[in-house]
């Protein structure tokens, strides 16, 4: 529900895409919501936490 609320707000603001850096634990959930992996990265203060940079192009938004 949280992802859907963020998408709804983004559409209302005229945004055409959402991007996020997500932990690998969230990867399956965000993929089910339509996000695609742009690249795998490492994050954190020591650059040792694997994550994924993800994006979802919002449909029905002109801009």
Q: Fill in the CATH topology.
A: Aminopeptidase
**Would you report the number of β strands?**
3
Number of helices: 2
Q: State mean pLDDT (0 to 100 scale).
A: 92
Widest beta sheet: strand line-up: 1-3-2
Shape: elongated
Low-confidence stretches: none
Radius of gyration: 13 Å
Task: Note down, in words, how this protein is organized.
By secondary structure, the chain is α+β, with helices and mostly antiparallel strands. The protein has a single domain, classed as 3-Layer(aba) Sandwich (Aminopeptidase). The protein contains two helices and three strands. It has helices spanning 2-12, 27-32; strands at residues 17-23, 36-43, 49-57. The protein has a three-stranded antiparallel sheet. A hairpin with a 5-residue loop joins strand 2 (36-43) and strand 3. The longest helix is centred in the first third of the chain and has 11 residues, at 2-12.
Which helices and strands, and how do they pair?
Elements: H1 2-12, E1 17-23, H2 27-32, E2 36-43, E3 49-57
Antiparallel strand pairs: 1-3, 2-3
Quickly list its features.
about 60 residues, alpha+beta, Aminopeptidase, three-stranded antiparallel β-sheet, about 25% helix, elongated
Summarize the structure.
By secondary structure, the protein is of the alpha+beta class.
